[in-house]
């Protein structure tokens, strides 16, 4: 009895969703423009890569 109630809820929840389907539509960023995506990835990963170097430089220059 309990399993049937859960199954009915999940199928009705899936039916009520209004999300677009297809590749790339479930991501929080757009993959339509490959050059914009490349720029965003360079900034994101580049900032994470340069952060330790900036911290070390700051510590070396600190008196």
Can you lay out the helices and strands and say which pair or pack?
Blueprint: H1 2-16, H2 34-61
CATH H level, superfamily name: Cytochrome c oxidase subunit VIIc
Question: How large is the count of helical segments?
Answer: 2
In one word, what is the shape?
Answer: elongated
Multimeric state of these chains?
Answer: single chain
Helical amount: 55-70%
Secondary structural class: mainly alpha
Order of helices and strands: HH
CATH architecture: Irregular
CATH class: Few Secondary Structures
Largest sheet: none
Mean pLDDT reading? 81
- Total number of distinct structural domains: 1
By DSSP, the count of extended strands is: 0
Q: Low-confidence runs (pLDDT<50, min 5 residues)?
A: none
Q: What is the radius of gyration computed over CA atoms, rounded to a whole number of angstroms?
A: 23 Å
Look up the CATH topology: Cytochrome C Oxidase, Chain L
Q: In percent, how much strand structure appears in the residues? A: under 5%
State the end-to-end CA separation. Answer: 72 Å
Can you tell me about this structure?
By secondary structure, the chain is mostly helical. The chain has one domain: Irregular (Cytochrome C Oxidase, Chain L), CATH 4.10.49. It has helices at 2-16, 34-61. The mean pLDDT is 81.
């Amino acid at each position: 009895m309990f399993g049937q109630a859960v199954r009915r809820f999940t199928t009705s929840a899936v039916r009520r969703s209004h999300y677009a389907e297809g590749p790339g539509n479930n991501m929080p960023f757009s993959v339509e423009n490959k050059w914009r995506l490349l720029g965003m990835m360079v900034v994101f990963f580049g900032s994470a890569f340069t952060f330790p170097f900036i911290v070390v430089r700051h510590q070396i220059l600190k008196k």
